[in-house]
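Bug #2210: token dump truncated for Sugar ABC transporter permease?
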Amino acid sequence: MSTAVKPPPPAPTDTVARSAGRPRIPFSSRIGPTRFGLLLVAPVAALLVAIVIYPVAYSLYLGLSHTNPFTGVRRFAGLDNFQQVLTDPDFWHSAWLTVYYVVCVTVLASAVALGMALLLRERFVGRPVLMAVIVLPWSLSTYAAAVVWRYVYSPQYGLLAAIAQHLGFQPVDLLAKHSVIPALALVHAWQFAPLGTYFLLASLQVIPDDLYKLGKVDGMGIVRRFRTITMPYIRLPFAIYVVLVGGQAAMAFDLIYFLTSGGPGGASQTLTYDIYQETFQDLSFGPGAAMSWILLIVVTALTAGYYVAAMKPKSARGKAAQA
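Reproduced locally. Full output below:
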């Protein structure tokens, strides 16, 4: 008596494919490289839309609308808010203070960063310690820097007042109306200059020492060696740093808020502080959004113009100067 043997069940398709020696096609190859790349970028793009594009678009919507802060009702206003802002004398006062502040911060931060980078390029005793100390202002939060410098500037119990009394001078309030912008710019440059120092130092360290030796043999002085040897190597990073520090100074708010709150008497009320006061204190959302867009357009235009001028070839700049 014989028993029937049942045939084994068929193997799964992937098992058959692997047993046949055919490799499994990856998911990225099945959907194509373009679609796979878009799939990888999609989360970042969604986050960018959520935290950047949507707020910017919403601020433009507010700038083109009249908003009732109590009922929330909005109606289209066209360019009325922009016209109101551009005809307001307080806006132009804040704009002048912003320009003054940006120039002071840019000049101070660029000069300090370039000077410290040139110093740190040399070899001397204590150089590692100085490199560690320089980065400390950059590591402080803006609030901590404002608190420290509030004590430094205080005419009653500040460090500068104590030094002045020790030297026999009368203490001066540097946060007074006539000197508050340079005083704020000094704090801003003190905190932002370490970034430029290391940024420029990285470019200075790639300059061959033989070029400086040849320059000395040719009889070049310090100024000429800096202009003909050093500056061509650091022109691009220096231009980038100037744009960074200038744009950051134009958008500065937290340091001014913590140190002076726009005072005394509006002497440090730059455009960013004016936007904050107009939007969040006076609840004038339309004019506040309009001012923010005007500031954005001006900063973008000046940044683009500076890049074009700074990155223009040397020959083209020489022909333009001769013309």
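Output looks complete on our side. Confidence is low (pLDDT under 50) at residues 315-323. Marking as cannot-reproduce; reopen if the truncation happens again.
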